[in-house]
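Hi D.,

Good news: the full-assembly prediction came through. Inputs first.
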Amino acid sequence: MKLRAVLSGRGRTAAVAAGIALLLACAAYASPPGDGGPDFDIGDRRGGLVDEIVFATEGDVAKMSGLIADGTYQLSAQGITDQTVFQRIRESEAVDYDLSFGSSVELTLNPVGPEVGTGDLNPFHVPAMREALNWLVDRRYIAEEIFGGLARPRFLPIGTAVPDFARLAAQAREIEVRYQPDRARALAVIDEEMTALGAERRGGTWHYQGRPVTLRVLIRSDDIRRQVGDYVANLLEEAGFRTERLYRGAEESSRIWIASDPAAGQWHVYTGSWVSILVQRDVADNFSFYYTPRGRADPLWQAYDPDPEFDAIAERLSRGEFADLAEREDMMARALTLSMEDSARVWLVDQSQIVPRAANVQVAADLAGGVRGSQIWPLTLRFRDGVGGRMSVATPSVLTEPWNPIAGTNWLFDRMVLRAINDLPLLPDPYTGLYRPQRVKEAQLTVREGTPVSATLDWLTVDVVDEIEVPGNTWIAWDEDARRFLTVDESGQAGLTARTRSTIRYEDGFFRRSWHDGSPVTPADVVIAWALTFARAEPESPLFDASHAPSFEVFARHFRGWRILSTDPLEVEVYSDQISPDGESVVAQRAPGVLPWHVLALAILAEEERELAFSSAKADRINAEWLSLVAGPSLPVLDRMLERARADGFLPFPELLGTYTEAAEIAERYDNIAAWRAERRHFQIGDGPYYLHSVHPVEGALVLRHFADFPDPADRWLGFADPAIPELDLEGPLIVEQGQSARFTIHATFQSAPYASEDIDLARYLLFDGDGALVREGDATSRGGGVWEVDLSAADVEALGMGPNSLEVVFTSRHVAMPVFASQPFATVPEGAAVLH
Amino acid sequence: MVNLPQEPAQGQAGPDMRQAYLFGIFVARRLVALVITVMIGVYLTIVVANMGGQVDELRLIQIRADVAEEVRGDPGISPAERQAFIDQRVALEIDRLNLDQPFIWRSFDYLRRAMLLDLGRAEQMHSDHGSRQVNRIIVERLPATLLLFGTANLLVFFVSILAALALSRRYGSAIDRAVVALAPTSAAPGWFYGIFLILIFAFVIPIAPPGGMVAVPPPEDPLSYALSVLRHMALPVLAIFISSIFVSIYSWRTFFLIHSSEDYVEMARAKGLPERMIERRYILRPTLPPIITSFLLMLIGLWSGAIILEQVFNWPGLGTLLFQAIGHRDTPVIIGGVVIFAYLLALTVFLLDFLYALLDPRVRINPGGVGR
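Then the structure:
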């Protein structure tokens, strides 16, 4: 992302990219991509589906179509929004793409007024004026003309590709219909409100206290928002306002809209944008964040003054104060309506990103974050026509920051690679965000009465009790002197209660797996990560890290202890006060993973010697290098620590880890990592489906290879390789006579095959009359084979009156968070009139 | 006045001492002048790179925005807790970057360390290997830049000198007129030709890679690695060569033509000396100082790399690095790049003073400077 920001900030470079795009458009030849790899029986294979994955730096997305077509790369980790590149990808037979929907564009409005510091009028102080913009803008025009089809209209403060939107799809659609473009209505509201503010219209221009009303439109000039800003400014001018267009880059605009006091009146409208890299399961906090002073401490947020009802609902939603999920849904629906009436932000589009890949490549790309945000990409990446072979992935950067598992790189593309090297207990579904078990067999979530949590998938059961007492032998605090955990009883917290208890049982073979260097995975690898979490927050510890302390403090406020119930199979209990509506998410946040203690031991020694530090902040503070397990000046330090650890038989946190570690294992592990280091020239090991074979920092490349000892069959996650977004085909009469009933038929398909009825979560219809008023709503009826029907009775038809109407249908699937819509316009005519025509 | 070089004559201790004294004064003055120049240049860079301290404001906004976005991901935190958490994190970052100190103080500290060549730690960036030491960050990219631009520029330099000499003998010939006609093609930068070269030789006739420094994955055998690097250098070197060669030949050819019409050259020709000798002794030798100057400036010019060309060819050089540093407003890295360039330039200028005296017998060094 760093490089992309740099690139986008320079017109010359953009010109280069455009030049390359233009010229490559001329090179219309395409050869078959990559080597397809040998045929291989998936049934015999474990882990990943290709033999080798090469990541290489390629920042110029304009070349991507050509590079994939000629077989240089088979996949791009970076999403593309450039329309020219998109067009070329669509035209190429050798290149295909996936779509993701994680970013959005909106208009941020200055809520201060009615007069600002300059004495000018700010009409957007009035909520009705802000609301009127919803009718003034044409979101479909923005999506199709300005974004060239790489966007979807968005009206609401929740994205169109999140589960909450799918749950509220019917209500959302109703609101969307209510706010369809209606210039006359927008101008009528503007006339009324401007007059009420004391302005008058002279010669087509609004004047206030004798001066024309000038709106300062702060337009981001470094991306497509430039066109969006111009479009909005043009609309405002047509509505009778003068505009002053302030074209600014990212930094300059942030100084104005975030840092300045909105009361100063430096801006009235800003073309904002927000990005999400994963499917957010819970967006109930969005109302508080975007519309109330609780969102952020910056002056703009502090200027928000929402309607009391909206404010109260937003706060309750952000705090999770609802009795059950039905109440939450009602509150969300109401908040959506109120957010449109508030319209401190006018949402415009959800932008789509293209994730290009070779046509013969398949991978699960996250609905929000694309392939870079997908947790299961390593388990689904494959050639469609065979298993094995080498896959080359283009990425804007590799090894952007040092890699270490405690406080190492947080860059998207580094983390993407690390997901192939490491394995997790639970993995989120890329299309719903719902966690599914990977190393976990099953779990039970016990919640206190009145805690609104539910389970969707069958690996998790939720039960409700009156009270959850934390057992006395549960680990809850840290004793730095003994370097071990303190139990609830030892820390004097007997009688402690918690809001939730997660009892997580891991798969039977959890401790029969090995690390990439051949060392066995043991309970000590589970415990050490927790030990470091506590030790690094302890001021007396040589591992103390001031930058870790604030996040630990937040964690400690909700953490109520954990304990290991058994090690064969591994079963742990975690107590916490933190909740989320999805039980799966609660368990995923608490389920312990594993880290190789023998590698961390070297890092611990190095940090205690103040030669390396886990975090960037501590490294700066002690003037040491930030620990990297893969390259650079960290490696010779780790070599020395390895010699020392081998000689001393060093075991970190011996009182804690000693319970789970034999003396022979210590020596064996150090021998293994020494051999690994000698062969691979780095210390990065994991337990994921691929291991890090080689690192080439300056060349900007690294190579992963298939880890044959990965426990799972290679096809385990293949069912998630394509997002099963239903495609709807709505058929029905175009003219319906009064007194007659009407039947509309919906064919739901996926890849031309009928969509299974049991996989459809919601099949709802909404009936609107010619004024856009909702007349009826209800559920469509399944007839099997992907066919659904909506029957309108004669009474329904009568309720519509005469004239044009529309039937809208909303379908949501269990497999994907994005609802799909279809609509059918039809006319109601007097009885017998249809015959006349 | 001091005539350099001169063998010390026996029995001339007094004049020698005086010459040494005058020489010492000359050296000291030049060094002081150059150090002051470097200091001014570096300080201006510090002020400009920080927009006179306004970058602090931008950084604070960015830090607060980044932390606020990170904290949004923590579920179940009350707004008050979240705000306290944000404040703590922001305070830590301010402390790390010393943003609580006035910029003016920090600017002098930057300057002091820069002048002592203590490049320190980067604030945001890392070397490709993961180090935050500015010297590692810069040194790591240096070989790639030297290799590409050194090869291309040396090629351009020597080819253009030799070609210019040859053309100066064929003034008005068809090839001379062709070079003059082609000279304006150098108005387009190397990256412009690079785009066409990539299109033609990487996509239409795919005989060269479209970018990068080495094949992916890099070959493990050193010979294969070297051959792969050479193959990847071909297009960028060609792009630089095409964009520079004609104007370079044209300017040197004009330069040599001017010198070819000097009276002493005409005299040599009138004496019937061979053309090679005239070129070597009567044209090349007196024009050596500007050639050497040009050569040395070309060499230190390699230090800056070429931002867009490196990006077009995805070449991991210093130009891209410094461009990224500017994007990150990573002052230590920007200063590191500039201070080394400034010192190299100062050293070159210093050396040239002596080289002129060595190469041109008409040049004398006196305490006031170089004179004729």
